[in-house]
Every structure is written in structure tokens, then in C-alpha cells.
Design goal:
Helix content is 54%, strand content 6%. The chain is mainly alpha-helical.
């Protein structure tokens, strides 16, 4: 698979293909022409000694300091060297590869003034598997992701550190082993390469993809729990959503009915009880609200993936440039916090369903789903773990975007903290994954303590998939391998694949997906 970069039309699946699946990347011809036109204008500005921020001036507080044209290349190199101040653990390779693709796509729009050979080297690094090592901490989210992007760009200059074929090398060594040569930056290029939101955007883009799969997975685990607890299916009747037609509520109700179709385990009102607890009855309302938040965030991310986030902007057709604020991360910072909160709620309600499964006063099943309670603890501490994860998520859900701190001698006096928010989101998604894995295990155990013959056809597939590798808990055993195996079935997409295969997703995807 090859992804053609044009500056527009980049989709979520394209980013995933490059970041996670190693798809090749090419630059289309119209993008090359736009790059050449913008580059020509930058060079004219330098020759004419125009006063243009970041091209013939310093940066931040030094924006009023004129830089002679003979020093413009050194200015850009110094920018990268001085801004590579990241600390902390390295970002995962998939995040860095996504950021490289996204930055390439932004430059390809032709408003940044980078040279074609510079953009081509970033593409060649993607295609040859040279991945810069980028510390995860150090970005304020404005002016863009300066520190982490500087580490990414160091490798293009033969500096910094990178991975190649699974081993760590200096930037120069990695390029040499891949048959590539470092470049020297020219006027404007340093800013063009680091003055953007691509680290937070990479984190957020992959999070949107993972969140979509997790929401569908949550419907599968919820439908298993609903049947194990003999839930009342009437709560998902489409007439309920017709009188409160939020998109998410409608979609989740339809997804639950699809999963439960043919079940002989669900009940009617007053058959066992008049109504269910909220964690079952309000699945359309809660999961639906999560979906609405996800959809909103996805639409914003889709716009950002195909935008120019740079300063100054170069408009070749008008022969002009504008210094403004497209590098600011606020358009992503707020959505990152929103999706973090939404995904935390997905885990919150799932943990309450786990509690209903293990609590005999609520389920009517053996305490902690153990056939021989007392001698065995069953799922007692599995629920503890879920409770711990949702509590951790509550801390992580404190919005990063409400904070700001002035920098660059108060020139950059409001920042977004969007990268911090996006990093927290990634951690929350991992926690949600583990909570849903626990619900998956507990629901299947609860079904085994009763009768699985009445399961709906779609959820039989989910149950059978788990039981291929994780047997019923007859007596206590070391449980963490079971948790890991269930989580891997979620993480890999195997559970979703087993239930829906190549058919329609359980929830509507974005048009840009």
C-alpha cells in the first residue's frame, strides 16, 4: 500500500497505514509544484532583505532582531539545535512515524517554504524505516510542538538519535545505513519543520482510531453482560431514541439491538424485574454521549490533518507572507481533553457493570463469580483492578488545556498544553482497554455459571473467541495471564473482527475515516 501525500484528503486510515503498518509514502506532482513556488518566494525575500519574521529575523523575543542573509541558513540550524530540549521517555515509533507523515502533508500544501529535497528526505526516512527518537516531554503546545519536533528534525541534519531495523544509532549512522544523506537547512526551513502541532496531532489521530474500536468493543462486552444479567432489551427500543434523537444514542441503541438479536437470555419488563440499573438501561445515553464526543473530536482532527500549522505563512500566488498563529495547539487541546473525559466515562460505566456481575446481591450469581467461594476469591480483585483504573482515569481527566504558562520572555504568553492532554488521552485509552478486558472475562464467567445456549449469534462469536485461549475459572489460578490475553484480543482487534468481520461497524465511522 502506498499513500500519496498531496496536502489534502489525508484520512485516518492513511495515518494508521504509515504509522503502524509500514505503508510507503509518495509526494504527488501538484504538491511538488506548490513547494517549488513557495520556496522561490522565500529565496526572493532573503535576497531582497525584506523584514519577515523567522526568515530575516530571530524568533520569539528576538523577532525584532534582523539577521543578515548570509547567516540565514545558520539561523535555521541554530533554531533546531537550541530547541531540541526534550526530556522523558521516547515517544512510541508509531507516534513519530505519524508525526512525520502529518508534517509532510502540512508542508505539501505549499504555505511553508520548505525545499522539496527536505520534504523528500522525510518521506525517504519513512520508506526506509529511519525513525527519530523523540522525548515525550517539553512541548507547551504553542508555538506548536517545538521541542519534540526539533528532535525529529535533528536526524534529517545527521544529528540526534534514531532507530533503524530495531537498533538505536546516531542520526548520521541511521541515515547512512539506510542509504540516505543528511541535508543542510536554508532560510525559513527550521521554522517550517518544527512550528506546528504534529506531535499532539499524531497522538490524537491514533487515539481517535483506537477510541472508535474501543467504543465498538464496549458494546460487545456490554451485550455479554446484559445477557449474563438477564437485562431488559426494551431499553434499546428505537422509539426511545426517536423522542431524543441524539446521533450517538440512536447509533448505540441500534448497535446493541444488532448484537442482541436472537438472544434468548434477555428479558422483558416485569419478567424478572421492572427495570434495570443505569449501567445497563442507560447504555444508549452514556455510550451515545461518548460517541458524540468522539465524533466531534474526529471531525476536528480530520481538519487539522490537512491544514498548515506554521508561521509565517508564505502565499506564493500573492507574493506575500503573514505572521500569525496557526501553530497554536488550542484547536486540538480542548478536543484532547474532551475525548479523555469521554473515554473515562466509557470505563466508568463498564466498571459498574463488572460490579453488578461480581456482587451476588445485584446479580443473583455466586459471589465474585466463584463456584467455590471462600476457599476461592474468584473475580474479587479483578474488580479491584478495574476500580483502580477508573480512579486513575479521573485524575488523568483533569483538563490540561485550562493551564497556561508564559514563555519566551512573555512573547508567547498563552499556550495550549495540548501535547500533555494528548499524552494523557493515550494513557486513558490503555486503561479503558484493560477495564473492558475485565468486563469481557467477567461476563463470560457469569455466562458459564448459567447457560450459554441462549446467547445471540453475534455474541457467541465473542464468547467462543475468549474460550479458545482462556478457560472458565473453575478454581483460583494466577489471573494476570487471563487479563493480558483478554486485553490483547481487544487491542489487536481480534474481538471486533470475530463479531463483525468485514461487515458494517457497530457504530457509524467518520466520512474521513
Amino acid at each position: 500500500m502506498t499513500i500519496s501525500v498531496s496536502g489534502e484528503g489525508l484520512r485516518f486510515q492513511d495515518v494508521v497505514a504509515v504509522a503502524r503498518e509500514g505503508a510507503k509514502v509518495t509526494l504527488n506532482e501538484p504538491a511538488k509544484k506548490r513547494l517549488a513556488a513557495a520556496r522561490q518566494l522565500v529565496e526572493e525575500m532573503v535576497e531582497q532583505e525584506r523584514i519577515v519574521y523567522g526568515i530575516t529575523t530571530g524568533f520569539g523575543m528576538f523577532s525584532d532582531t534582523y539577521i543578515d542573509k548570509d547567516a540565514s541558513a545558520l539561523l535555521q540550524q541554530n533554531l533546531i539545535f537550541s530547541h531540541a530540549c526534550g526530556v522523558g521517555e521516547y515517544l512510541p515509533c508509531e507516534v513519530v512515524r505519524a508525526a512525520m507523515l502529518l508534517r509532510t502533508n502540512s508542508l505539501a500544501k505549499g504555505y511553508s517554504g520548505a525545499k522539496l529535497e527536505t520534504v523528500q528526505l522525510m518521506i525517504d526516512m519513512l520508506n526506509k524505516g529511519v525513525t527519530p527518537l523523540v522525548p515525550c516531554q517539553g512541548s507547551l503546545g504553542a508555538s506548536g510542538d517545538l521541542a519534540p519536533l526539533s528532535h525529529m528534525i535533528l536526524v534529517l541534519l545527521g544529528e540526534g538519535e534514531a532507530l533503524y531495523q530495531g537498533k538505536q544509532y546516531t542520526g548520521a549512522e541511521a541515515l547512512h545505513l539506510a542509504g540516505l544523506k543528511p541535508i543542510k537547512l536554508s532560510a525559513k526551513e527550521g521554522l517550517a519543520l518544527i512550528n506546528g502541532t504534529q506531535i499532539m496531532l499524531a497522538l490524537l489521530t491514533l487515539a481517535v482510531v483506537d477510541a472508535f474500536e474501543l467504543q465498538q468493543t464496549a458494546l460487545i462486552t456490554a451485550s455479554l453482560t446484559s445477557q449474563a444479567l438477564r437485562g431488559i432489551q426494551a431499553a434499546y427500543d428505537p422509539r426511545v431514541s426517536q423522542v431524543r434523537p441524539h446521533v450517538g444514542q440512536v447509533a448505540v441503541s441500534a448497535g446493541m439491538l444488532r448484537l442482541l438479536a436472537g438472544s434468548k437470555l434477555n428479558t422483558a419488563p416485569s419478567e424478572l424485574r421492572v427495570q434495570d440499573a443505569y449501567s445497563l438501561r442507560c447504555i444508549p445515553q452514556v455510550h451515545g454521549a461518548v460517541y458524540n464526543g468522539w465524533r466531534h473530536v474526529g471531525e476536528i482532527v480530520s481538519i487539522e490533518m490537512n491544514s498548515t500549522t506554521d508561521n509565517p505563512l508564505v502565499f506564493a500566488e500573492q507574493g506575500d507572507s503573514i505572521s500569525a498563529g496557526n501553530f497554536h495547539g488550542e484547536p486540538l487541546a480542548l478536543p484532547a481533553d474532551y475525548l479523555t473525559i469521554a473515554m473515562s466515562e466509557l470505563a466508568n460505566i463498564a466498571e459498574r457493570r463488572i460490579e453488578r456481575l461480581v456482587n451476588p446481591q445485584l446479580s443473583g450469581l455466586p459471589a465474585f463469580l466463584s463456584k467455590h467461594g471462600g476457599l476461592n476469591s474468584g473475580f474479587m480483585i479483578a474488580q479491584y483492578t478495574a476500580a483502580s483504573l477508573v480512579s486513575e482515569n479521573k485524575v488523568l481527566s483533569h483538563p490540561a488545556s485550562v493551564d497556561s504558562i508564559p514563555s519566551s520572555a512573555n512573547q508567547e504568553d498563552h499556550v495550549s498544553m495540548g501535547t500533555i492532554g494528548a499524552r494523557k488521552l493515550r494513557r486513558v485509552i490503555k486503561n479503558v482497554q484493560n477495564v473492558l478486558a475485565i468486563e469481557y472475562l467477567a461476563a463470560c464467567q457469569a455466562l458459564d455459571l448459567q447457560d450459554t445456549d441462549g446467547l445471540s449469534p453475534l455474541t457467541v462469536s465473542a464468547y467462543s473467541l475468549l474460550r479458545k485461549t482462556v478457560p472458565m475459572l473453575e478454581d483460583d489460578r494466577i489471573m494476570y495471564p487471563d487479563l493480558r490475553q483478554a486485553a490483547e484480543l481487544l487491542r489487536s482487534g481480534a474481538l471486533l473482527q470475530a463479531v463483525v468481520g468485514t461487515g458494517e461497524p457497530l457504530l457509524p465511522a467518520l466520512s474521513s475515516y
